[in-house]
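Lab meeting, item 3. Inverse folding demo.
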């Protein structure tokens, strides 16, 4: 045989062997856990493509280092320290709702109003603070009408209500309520009582 015929025969045998090897196992099922090869053929109209997240991760081979993967659970966010308790707003009125908020805010009351409310809105948190409302009649000597304290423990915004009552008529004149938090003055409001 001539050299070119041997080369052609060897070349043909090599190509035939590669074709046989390439065709082997095309219709055999893949071993369990082996991902399916990518396909460029469009899916049949009745078959929906599987989402990419359904593939199960394979455990690493014995002695192999684990592959780097995306973090599944993110680290817990840093918790900011709780803000200290502060008084945000003081509102006076003659009526409150179930949430202790003044429903009819006013700085002027009638002598026959039986109850006057001070609604104190706080923000922040405290395991145990003391709010105090000191009510004073400013005419003459600045007579103390009432001093009421309440303990408050909260993890966020809260409303604390104080009230003063008089079964008789209030004396006309100028009054003041002062709010303190743990003994420190934090808010005050003047108001007046007039004949109705």
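The presenter then showed the designed sequence:
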């Amino acid at each position: 045989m001539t050299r070119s015929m041997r080369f052609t025969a060897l070349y043909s045998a090599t190509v035939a062997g590669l074709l046989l090897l390439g065709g082997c196992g095309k219709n055999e099922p893949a071993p369990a856990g082996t991902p399916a090869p990518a396909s460029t053929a469009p899916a049949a109209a009745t078959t929906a493509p599987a989402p990419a997240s359904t593939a199960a991760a394979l455990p690493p081979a014995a002695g192999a280092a684990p592959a780097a993967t995306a973090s599944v659970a993110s680290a817990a966010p840093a918790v900011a320290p709780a803000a200290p308790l502060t008084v945000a707003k003081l509102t006076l009125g003659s009526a409150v709702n179930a949430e202790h908020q003044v429903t009819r805010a006013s700085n002027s009351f009638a002598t026959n109003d039986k109850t006057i409310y001070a609604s104190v809105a706080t923000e922040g948190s405290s395991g145990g603070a003391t709010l105090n409302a000191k009510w004073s009649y400013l005419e003459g000597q600045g007579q103390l009408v009432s001093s009421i304290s309440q303990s408050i423990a909260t993890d966020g915004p809260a409303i604390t209500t104080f009230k003063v009552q008089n079964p008789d008529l209030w004396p006309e004149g100028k009054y003041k309520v002062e709010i303190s938090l743990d003994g420190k003055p934090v808010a005050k409001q003047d108001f007046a009582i007039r004949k109705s």
